[in-house]
Write a structure and sequence with these properties.
Length: about 525
């Protein structure tokens, strides 16, 4: 990422706005207020990968079909419903209709009741409503996806479905590409256009590569295999989908990649895994952790993907140790040096500072937890097995203290998260071992054994400091003081950032808002 530097404003940006077929707490509240007049939300039981499953009781089938239009500039999304006999009334709300660039097309059996709501006429057996979604090749008002000559990529908008029914039906939602067109949809993303598909099984998980561009999937598959076996935070999915878009680094800008739930997209070069800062491993982490924090813990989502993206890549033998540390070090916060406080989004909104400082702070925190627990616990214990994001910084702080069993870690963390101070980046490579049984430097000795012997786990033939090991090399020394001094940074605050309206995180699902940075920011994965 940082190696790629600043690019000119380019031509392809995929936007956020993504949406999962879940009911957010706010929406659930709204639904409850209408329950008194007989309308109730359908029970959302669609699994995160969109496959239909057999449910007890009545099922209300929702199918969202994406198709390209003859004229460029928009795609059509058709919402089709299969209504069980027990349902006597149906309302469908499409919140994104309140945004510019989305217009109502044909309706069949639905009346457009209000701005974002449609009401079923109760007679049409398979009612449907079509929306036109503006897409473009640059980010701007109304752009909800990307379209090029041969292909388009769009996201699935969320809907709110309410019914009048004696028995509340279970809603199942599928997202699909029109049968008449080439394309593939999965987990809230749809690629419209010719492509190859490659399916592999990686540690009990099905991985589908949707190849809009010719790309070698071998290295990425190997990473997925290692990751699912070693780095999955206890989060398993049935499937993961990787969309490889036919865009080169030269003609993407601002956003290099993005994840929605269990699918993500990358550009042509995204599968190469040339250095630890590549987009692929970052997005992989998003598919496991989803939204990690909200409120003043919002920074955690990108910080964790950035830190673990680097860390897991390093431990799978990607890149080298020096560039790994250089990639983690927040020398300055893009796009300009500025004062950044992670718990205050105003200080980093529109920048990549929450990735950069966030990853740096998490690296230091990981080392602190390992040091204070004598290697028994790591930062991963703070994230593993969680189904809900941290609601705020306080809850994250409490979880850290609990994992470390050390109250004094609280003030340590406060210093680097709630002020603009930056901790030294850990120097001892032992703190970067993600799995002691792996052998990332390929010297035939696993990382854990190398650390025990005072050898460098990431540099073949080297001691813990990166120098060539000698027989007299001491065991790994604590080296917590570091050489980096904390630095004061400037106070410029620039830039703006796109938000993700209409995005609802499914309960427990790893749903991630794509955040597209506006303006001349450094290229960034979302
Ligand atoms: Zn990200």
């Amino acid at each position: 990422m940082s190696a790629r530097g600043v690019r000119a404003v380019g031509t392809v940006v995929v936007v956020a706005l993504l949406v999962v077929a879940g009911v957010t707490p706010a929406l659930a509240t709204a639904d409850r207020t209408t329950a008194t007049d007989g309308w109730r939300p359908a029970v959302d039981a669609s699994p995160s990968d969109g496959t239909l499953t057999q449910q007890d009781g009545a099922t209300l089938g929702e199918r969202i079909v994406a198709s390209r239009n003859d004229e460029p500039g928009s795609v059509t999304l058709t919402f089709e419903y299969r209504i069980p006999d027990s349902v006597s009334g149906l309302r469908v709300g499409v919140p994104v209709l309140s945004l510019p660039g989305i217009t109502v097309g044909e309706t069949d059996g639905f009346e457009h009741a209000t701005g974002t709501r449609f009401e079923w006429d109760t007679e049409t057996e398979r009612p449907s409503v079509s929306l036109r979604l503006a897409v473009g090749d640059t980010l701007g008002d109304g752009v909800r996806g990307v379209e090029r000559d041969d292909w388009a990529l769009v996201s699935q908008p969320s809907t709110r479905v309410q019914v009048r029914a004696a028995e509340r039906p279970t809603r199942t939602t599928t997202f699909a590409v029109d049968d008449a067109e080439p394309g593939y949809a999965s987990s809230h993303l749809a690629y419209l256009g010719p492509h190859d598909r490659r399916n592999v099984t990686v540690a009990d998980e099905n991985a589908t590569f949707v190849l809009g561009a010719d790309a070698d999937t071998e290295r990425a598959t190997a990473f997925l295999r290692t990751a699912n076996e070693r780095f999955d935070f206890g989060v398993r999915h049935d499937r993961i989908t990787v969309f490889v878009l036919p865009v080169s680094d030269e003609n993407t800008t601002n956003v290099d990649a993005a994840t929605v739930d269990t699918a993500f997209w990358v550009g042509e070069s995204g599968l190469r895994l040339g250095d630890t800062g590549g987009v692929f491993t970052h997005e992989y982490v998003h598919t496991r952790l989803g939204t990690v924090g909200t409120g003043d813990a919002t920074w955690l989502t990108e910080a964790s993907a950035e830190y673990y993206g680097h860390l897991f890549a390093l431990n799978d033998g990607v890149g080298n140790y020096e560039s790994f540390r250089a990639g983690l070090r927040a020398e300055e916060y893009a796009p300009e040096r500025q004062s950044v406080t992670l718990t205050d989004p105003e200080t980093w909104r529109g920048t990549t500072a929450h990735y950069d400082k966030g990853a740096h702070v998490l690296a230091a925190l990981d080392a602190e937890i390992r040091r204070r627990t004598d290697g028994e616990r790591t930062l991963r214990d703070v994230f593993a097995g969680r189904s809900e994001p941290f609601a705020d910084y306080r809850s994250f702080r409490e979880a850290v203290i609990e994992v470390a069993g050390d109250e004094s870690l609280g003030p340590w963390l406060d210093r680097y998260v709630t002020t603009d101070a930056l901790p030294p980046l850990p120097e001892n490579p032992r703190y970067y071992v993600a799995d002691p049984d792996l052998d990332p430097d390929g010297d035939g000795t696993p990382s854990g054994t190398e650390v025990d012997r005072g050898r460098h786990p990431f540099v073949a033939g080297a001691g813990p400091d990166g120098a060539v090991a000698t027989e007299a090399e001491p065991t790994t020394a604590e080296n917590e003081t570091g050489t980096e001094s904390e630095r004061e940074t400037g106070t410029d605050r620039t830039g703006t950032e796109g938000s993700a309206p209409g995005f609802g995180a499914g309960a427990g699902a790893a749903a991630l808002a794509l955040v597209a940075a506006l303006g001349a920011l450094r290229r960034r994965r979302a």
